[in-house]
Design a protein that fits this description.
Blueprint: E1 2-6, E2 9-12, E3 17-24, E4 32-38, E5 45-50, E6 57-59, E7 67-72, E8 77-82, E9 91-98, E10 107-108, E11 112-117
Parallel strand pairs: 2-11
Antiparallel strand pairs: 1-3, 3-8, 4-5, 4-9, 5-6, 7-8, 9-10, 9-11
Length: 118
């Protein structure tokens, strides 16, 4: 699975962005998908994950209620809708894939920069 994130940009605090992650290959629909982010000088952190069918999602406490992860298996794409953005959300956002019922993400895409101005 090859992944490519897009949709990042510069937005003012309180604004919204929707990130997309396009996957190549025939096995996208058999992988759980996740979004991660890494701010300058900080370790990469988990943001959200979605199951193969899309029926199960999980979020970090820092984004719960503001971000929504979704997927379209027909389009081999996973999305991250980000609302009520604040400067602490500034980071490079990357998508990743893993087989179900495993803990390690073994496919990673190149990230997209999100910058939130105050």
């Amino acid at each position: 699975v090859q992944l490519q994130a897009s949709g990042g940009g510069l937005v003012q605090a309180g604004g919204s962005l929707r990130l997309s992650c396009a996957a190549s290959g025939r096995t996208f629909s058999r992988h759980d998908m996740g979004w991660f982010r890494q701010a300058p000088g900080k370790e990469r952190e988990f943001v959200a994950t979605i199951s193969v069918s899309g029926s199960s999602t999980y979020y970090s406490d820092s984004v719960k209620g503001r971000f929504t992860i979704s997927r379209d298996n027909a389009k081999n794409t996973v999305y991250l809708q980000m609302n009520s953005l604040n400067p602490e959300d500034t980071a490079v956002y990357s998508c990743a894939a893993k087989p179900p019922y495993t803990t390690g993400y073994n496919y990673w895409g190149r990230g997209t920069q999100v910058t939130v101005s105050s």
